[in-house]
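Let us work through a complete example step by step.
Step 1: write down the sequence.
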Amino acid sequence: MKIFCPIRKIWLESLPEERVRQNIIRCMISEWGYPPELISCEKELKELCGQKGASVPNRRLDIVAFYTQGSELRPLFVIECKADRMTKAALRQLVGYNYFINAPFIGIGTKDGLVCWQKNQEAVQEAPTYSLLTSLIK
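Step 2: predict the structure and record it as tokens.
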């Protein structure tokens, strides 16, 4: 069975983690108001962090949403997707990625949903809509 990724515009094997990733992307676009052109999916960390030539791990990020500040594109929300459940190891992985990306929001998506945190703070209690997250950083 295949599943379509509207960001990469390709059909993919419908594996458990891919279903989680695509469900979150669907919610981001259709329910939470994220512009699809400001979402990146399965991009290499070194492509996104802007630290050309720096020592950056060779890893892929599941989902990164961006916002514009003036004419600059900045990371807003980094999401790590897991097929099953959230673990401390997954959270460490996400925080490690965000060390390079420096997004103000991070999240872990599982089959049970998405948990979002503002950097160095408590979990965001509302749905992490694009307008809510951008309003919290301005």
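Step 3: interpret the result. The mean pLDDT is 90.
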